[in-house]
Amino acid sequence: MSNVDFTDVRLSQQSIAGQTVPVALVPRIRTQNYFAQVPSAFKSLWKGMKLTMWYFLHPSTIVTKQYPENRATLKFPERYRANLQLNQDDNGYYMCNGCKACERACPNASIIVKTRKGAVTGKNELDAYVWRMDSCTFCNACVMACPSDALRMGHEFECAVYDRRLLIYTLNRHAGPTGDQVAKLDEETRKQVVLEKRGPYDGPVPLAGEAYPNIRPIVLPGQATEQEDKV
Ligand code: SF4
Ligand code: SF4
Q1: 74 CA → ligand 1 middle, Å
Q2: I need a surface site. Which of 28, 143, 151, 192 has the fewest CB within 10 A?
Q3: Is this structure's pTM higher than 0.70?
Q4: Is the pLDDT of residue 226 over 70?
Q5: Which of 110, 113, 114 has most ligand 2 atoms within 8 Å of its beta carbon, as the pocket-test mutant?
Q6: Confidence of residue 203 (pLDDT cuts 50, 70, 90)
Q7: Are residues 20 and 105 in the same domain?
Q8: Are residues 115 and 159 in the same domain?
Q9: From residue 14, how far is each of 9, 17, 28 by CA, in Å?
Q10: Same domain, yes or no: 20 and 132
């Protein structure tokens, strides 16, 4: 509740820096007598103590988790969004066919879907699914835009790093066709399908078509930069 009675506010013309301007005159806030405030101080103290005592007696209703002591038993609400993940079918094939609907839906250009023409299927297939956690706002628009149910928001929240380049992920562990595409092949042709391995990060990633000026390649175990390759 405001201590100011706005019906008492008056406008007055005053000269400021050589100009006459209207100034609102607000009456001074009436302060209560110090001792008159003691009962209300005790009342609010009692309210706080009552709430504390209620949670002390009903620990199961406490929302705040005692992290990290409870790491092993930590439970998240189903819709909690911590990191973007690709769905796989029962046979381990990614369900993403590289249609790029999620890339177009992302308001932050946090997704880059690299595709290729499948050597065996002849169809468009996923090469690398790059997700930039450093610019993602976890809005879920990509998940909702996907027509193939190929994306989900996971609960892996311990993603802190000392170098923001490490917040750029290649989400797929292999490149290749979807399970549906493979299912349409005959038995013999199916044997020719090769799922190529993909690492967690594959070099500097352009942001909205531009090279990100202060991100240079980072070398992860098992990877080599272009410069090293040329030596
Ligand atoms: S959650 Fe939102 S910001 Fe993050 S990648 Fe998906 S669409 Fe982009
Ligand atoms: S995740 Fe879904 S929307 Fe994005 S490219 Fe793959 S199939 Fe298309």
Answers
A1: 25
A2: 28
A3: no
A4: no
A5: 113
A6: low
A7: no
A8: yes
A9: 15, 10, 18
A10: no
Cα maximum dimension of the chain: 93
List the residue whose alpha carbon is closest to atom 6 of ligand 1: 142
- Output b/e per residue, 77-103; b: 16+ Cβ within 10 A: eeeebebbbbebeeeebbbbbbbbbbb
Are residues 55 and 93 located together in one domain of the fold? no
- Of the listed ranges 20-24, 25-29, 153-157, 184-188, the least confidently predicted one is 25-29
The ligand 1 atom nearest the CA atom of 135: 3
Q: Ligand 1 centre from 12 Cα, in Å? A: 52
Same domain, yes or no: 93 and 167: yes
Mutate to test the pocket of ligand 2, among 94, 149, 151, 180 (most ligand atoms within 8 A of CB): 151
What pLDDT score does 204 carry?
54
Which tokens go with 120?
A: 């065996």
Q: Would you state the pLDDT for residue 2?
A: 57
Range of the domain at 20: 6-60
Which positions ≥6 away from 22 have C-beta within 8 Å?
11, 12, 13, 14
Is 125 inside a domain boundary?
yes
Whether residue 106 is found in the same domain as residue 192: yes
pLDDT given for residue 201 in this prediction:
63
Query: Which ligand is located closest to the Cα atom of residue 171?
Result: 2
pLDDT digits (tens, 9 = 90+) for 70-89: 888 888 889 999 999 999 99
Tell me which H or E stretch contains 39. helix 38-57
pLDDT tens digits for range 100-157: 999 999 999 999 999 999 989 999 999 999 999 989 999 999 999 999 999 999 999 8
